[in-house]
## 1
Amino acid sequence: DGTTIDDLIDLKMNEVSLRVMNDPELHRFEMERIFARTWLLLGHDTEIPKPGDFVVRDMGEDQVIVARSRDGGIHVSLNVCPHRGMKVCTAEAGNTQVHRCIYHGWAFRPDGDFIGAPIEKEQMHGNKRTKSELGLKKARVHLYGGLIFATWNIEGPSFDEFLGDSKFYFDQLFCRTDSGLELLGPPQRFMIPANWKIGSEQSASDGFHTLTLHRSLMEGGVMGGTPESIYDNAPGMYGVDVSCTEGHSLRCLEAAQTFKMFSNVSFEGKTTEERLHLLPPPGITPELIPQLFKNLSPEQVDMLATIPPQVGGMFPNVLVLFIFAPRTDGGSSGALALHTYIPRGPDHFEFVNYIFAEKDAPEQVKRDMLQNSIQQAGTSGIIEQDDADTWPQIMRNTKGPMSRSITLKYQALHGHEKPEGWPGGGLLYPGFTKDDTQWNWWLNYHRLMSAS
Ligand code: FES
């Protein structure tokens, strides 16, 4: 309607119009300029271990088939039949070597190639196209620690370029052991009546909301702080916020400082290995510790042992949670979960919760990781039910003409400051949590939405 992205995002005042959270035209542009161009998380390779295994997932509003072919490769193809536009695959998951469209019977391999049609002589009459031109539209695929990413931007930045400086940090969670991660069961899924950006910009390491919205974590004695004075005494709010120009972000926090149950742990004079044994990162058992040194750099292992990334986001729509929690045998197993916020029109998104453990971890640790992830970050988890209540109420406020004129204020901006001896790159914000990482998320959104 003539409104530009600069009318909606005020780069000088660091403000965003509430209107961006509910606008059909803007939503269409987001699908084209963001979801059709960036790398998107679609699942994990342990979901489809055998040739022919497939799951159906979403790249923005486009549905895709994620399938393993006979040669073991993973392929992502648009779930739209090139004949008349029917969904080729109507199941959510399964195993087949032939995806046959139920409308007129055209058939495709797991890699998206066209096989043939049932009455081939008649249906292929005309010879205007070869069989190789009749396959499903294919996305570019990259596996990162077994996580399946894909993009329609075939000639665009590589996945490593997309991760940028955040790779140093994300490697510590996803690429640290020999056998890698295992997805524990199919992802949990539920619909939220809110725009995808409400969840996603919060994922860009919004620390302040933890203190207020999730204060039950302090009141219940999980995180440090006291029920009487959570704002004055909030050790979990101190750390180093990290973000990179690609819009990803992480909050690196000392576990002993963040969680009450570890408050008597002291790292004084301890080596990296001793610290890993004293307070193992979630999912890491003593037997797996040597693998950390093999797969990560000494700086990465030291950070994982001391001040690991505990929460963050991958642009555009992924939340990363790496949570410490007590294990049933007295150790620490914690939780490792990823959420994706899949757009379903401008006013809904589908919340997908992937739960992980190390493939080589003992079964009991996997069970604990599953239980912790569900209890904390699942559909009824103590963390996510707070957010699932708040996001729709923000959405409710996007409808009135006065409410739509309100701007969101990014107030707590302090600027980049590298702590002495910090081994990782990116834009760094040490001390009490800030708004910088969230504002950087909007800067990347603005950059992509402004691109021709
Ligand atoms: Fe798929 Fe016709 S629409 S075969």
Note: The longest helix spans residues 363-377.
## 2
Amino acid sequence: MKIFLIYGGKSAEHDISILTAYSIMKEVYYKYYEVVPVYITKEGAWLKGLTLDAPPTHLEALHLTAGEEAALAIKEGAVSTGVPITIAEIKEKDAVIFPVLHGPNGEDGTIQGLFEILDMPYVGAGVLASACGMDKIISKHLFTQAGLPQVPFIPIIKTDWLRDEEKVLAKCDEILDYPMFIKPANLGSSVGISKAMNQEELIAAIETALKYDRRVLVEQGVEAREVEVAVLGNDDVHTSVPGEIVKATNEFYDYQSKYLDNKVTMQIPALLPEEVQTQLREYAATAFKAIDGSGLTRCDFFVTDDHEIFINEVNTMPGFTEFSMYPLLWENTGLNYSDLVEELIQLAIKRFEEKQ
Ligand code: ATP
Ligand code: MG
Ligand code: MG
Ligand code: MG
């Protein structure tokens, strides 16, 4: 069977996606699948092959030297020659699409819509779940409906901000206390997110977030541990043990600490009482159903010292390198990386067949 592994993409999370693609390539290339890597450049061109353009720090993170990586790619004839691939070439019978794109245009339902039109099975969330999961404002509304606990927040539309800044600020002051977290509605990897300690910082943070999206949200900041649960399945939902992101300081988990500093460790399973772990897993399954998830989702929570739980967000295409939280959570729940990749492909086929 042929797998089209689609990675890269125009979003700010381009580089992370390349890392994930390398991990999956290493895993499935020597199996019974024929893998065709499809690289979407930052400019949006679709090229056939494995790019060698990854930043060196990213190769290091995967314990791959540029030489090794190039050798792997060349050996398999996968190295990017800059040959364009058209969407028509992807439409093949008995092929599965494995998109490992993060953020807008990859994780938000747009490319999933293309796969629906191609009428092919694809790994992960469908159009609706991708769109709802990516949009932090919409997902919060769905979580409220599903009875999931979350911190208070205020959605802001750019036009309203430009028309009456004072009114928006007054509302933030009325409902929220500092610190506040300000986020673009549709992004990931902490891009465009700031923490504000006072009104001056809040204004700057809203302006920053608005550079990335025309809708942003201001959230109540909480002092809490960060715990994540992996969800896998279609209509039958399975959850992993929770894992904690342990940060060296109590600063927030920003882009720098996520991918560059190596100051973050993962504690799997999270050191939490059994009943708190069970509650987190139930909430994760509920969140998955609330957005109509399929395939995979990583559900992020805040857990306070007295074990109060708030759901933060869901990621329908979480980081998926061998060293990422999502696969490590499954590894610790009894499913290794290789079997996980296989399971995701099978879930994609199953969902496609059920739809026919
Ligand atoms: P990703 O998709 O990579 O997980 P993201 O860009 O979708 O991240 P969030 O997970 O919402 O962003 O936030 C990024 C980080 O900012 C969190 O992991 C946490 O460290 C911090 N943070 C976000 N919201 C809050 C909050 N309300 N209170 C305290 N910290 C927060
Ligand atoms: Mg996210
Ligand atoms: Mg994300
Ligand atoms: Mg997150």
Note: The radius of gyration is 20 Å.
## 3
Amino acid sequence: MPKILTVGEILVELIATTKGDGFHEPQPLIGPYPSGAPAIFVNQVGRLGGDAAIIGRVGDDNFGHLNIARLARDGIDVSGIEVAQGEVTGCAFVRYREDGSRSFVFTMAQSATAALSITGAGASLMESCDHIHIMGTALSASGMAEVAMEAVVRIKARGGSLSFDPNIRPEILDTPGLRARLDGVLDQTDIFLPSGNELFMLTGARDEASAIRVLLERGIREIVLKRGAEGASHFDADGRTDIAPLTVEEIDPTGAGDCFGGAFVTLRLAGATPFEALRLANAAGARAVTRTGPMEGSSTRAELDRFLADHETDY
Ligand code: ATP
Ligand code: MG
């Protein structure tokens, strides 16, 4: 089975248990939960039995070791996670507003992950892995971006493949250099996994069909469009396949896209058809939103099969 590599932030998340508009007064929090989009993605790969590794950097503190222990438990190669003495692991403090949107306090830019650079362990993973999964957040900060771009160049040069989840908020698009990096990765992408607004942000197209056409003409083999509670769609040279959403009660939406991506990429690389990969990824995303904590909702194959058996009857 191809070995999947990702690069980027490994964080903990603390979640306010009351809803409201931000952190203006003391309030109860739950956590720390292991987090960071690339970490959640790779955890989902590992839980499905995929062969996977992550290049990242954490502080020598409980938050860093919590993440390493979780990823190692789920079978991830953690040799590329550098533990930085005297530095701290990044935190995301999340509070939900009444309308379901989120307010964040992030310490990522001041944390160990900001100083990510290529280490011997990282370089050797770039030589031994066959597939690289890039997340836009890893392209937004210079250290992580340099490592991510190097991994892309090395793995693609050896004939490997690339999946790309832009995972990007419009507010950070003006970050110096980010546009060029997003374009550079897109030019090398085999499997592209955007959500709706990202599809338009990155192509400049006004409607979905034009955006998809632009991407296929650019040489991207497969596009998987994530539609949140509306399900998902797959596009390739043969056409379009849609999958209806499974009906679930949404408890915590963070991480759904990462679990969806982890499941889709694992299954496609293992030889599943696009439809089968889409069906299981749709279930992985839906199951993820039913659990509190970004990484707590990643699923094993047995959990996905049971979840599908319970929910597909709703169609
Ligand atoms: P994020 O970056 O916040 O994790 P995303 O935009 O990358 O999210 P979503 O579209 O929110 O990803 O979720 C990924 C997939 O998970 C969806 O395409 C769908 O298959 C499934 N999913 C997400 N939310 C729900 C939901 N409320 N009900 C059913 N399925 C869902
Ligand atoms: Mg996302």
Note: The pocket of magnesium ion (ligand 2) is lined by residues 165, 167, 195, 257 (CB under 6 Å).
## 4
Amino acid sequence: MTKLNWGMIGGGKGSQIGPAHRMGAQADGNFVMAAGALDVDAERGRAFADTLGIASDRAYANWQDMLEGERTREDRVDLVTVATPNATHFEITKAFLEAGFNVLCEKPMTMTVEEGEEIVRVAEASGKICAVNYCYSAYPMVREMRHMVATGQIGKVRTIVANFSHGHHGDAGDADNPRVRWRYDPAMAGVSGQFADCGIHALHMASFIAGDEVRTLSADFASTISSRELEDDAMVNFRMEGGTVGRLWTSSVAIGRQHGFDIQVFGETGGLRWASEQPNQVFYTPVGGRTQIMEKGEGGLSDEAQRLSRVAIAHPEGFPLAVANIYVDLAAKIRGEAHGDFPVAADGLRSMAAVHQAVASAKADGAWVDARPPMFR
Ligand code: NAI
């Protein structure tokens, strides 16, 4: 089978998310890294591209050059990943979609709801893929939970409790460190700090597992380190279209919590629990019964969980392979082999609406607000 050509913007040397994309895209042999504008510093980006085996004429100084360079090539990239800081996602994603490229955009997809709606429209008009990297949804055991809910194994979902709370910005003495400070600066991060950074992963996960969307929410935001303009801790209560009650806590000052992403789903006949730090296990408790630990790779799991599991039972599979699962389904969709099961622009838009509405709610002392983007009301 011919490999697909893949390019990345951002994700340069030393970046946080770049390695997961490079490993994920290439893990299954579907994509070859053919082009990139990897760094805000052109020379550093080119030098890094060289170490990755990208040909020098496809190691671009910036995304605009990459767009022009790739546009006319016969072997143009089949997929472009946008792994730059948040404020650049909109213009890069829009430009590549309009030029007829498939795009995988990092979260948050845009900075505003209007931009999010624009991306949904542009993606639809282009007929191209616009995926958004809510990669936690591609862990095999998360797919198992979604399957269990969809097949009625825990009954109607009553309540979801989701957390994405870590303690890595909990040191007030380090708050001025430039790598930390920008995340709480509205000029750089937008209207929300921690909720837009981590909370939206948890909110997306709740919708993904429940097979339902968030309709209303009420938020309490706090800047527990007083020099911060944006929130470093948030509690968001929500209600889903089908009536499910949601509780979401996200924090960056929860000292002692490391990655801190976990979710519990409570249905009428059973409960489920999953944590990103032990992603190979789901805890399942049937009503009136004992808690069982379900392991990735064991017999009896859904086809979907088996499909996305690569190594034998008890061998850890981690974050890069969850990202790889997104790329597997992108490759299948690009090749026309399958419809592709990955988060799309509409999911990115829903997150942006939730972020902006949570900010409005927090400013109004937690008033309940419509969480949906105007386009979907
Ligand atoms: P980072 O600051 O560690 O790295 C950003 C990279 O982009 C650097 O290599 C920088 O030189 C490059 N860059 C900046 N502006 C650029 C431009 N205009 N053109 C080309 N390259 C440019 O940032 P990090 O943490 O890797 O985050 C990048 C994006 O990924 C963010 O939107 C973030 O929210 C998202 N992210 C998503 C995660 C997930 O779980 N899906 C996890 C971590 C980050």
Note: The mean pLDDT is 97.
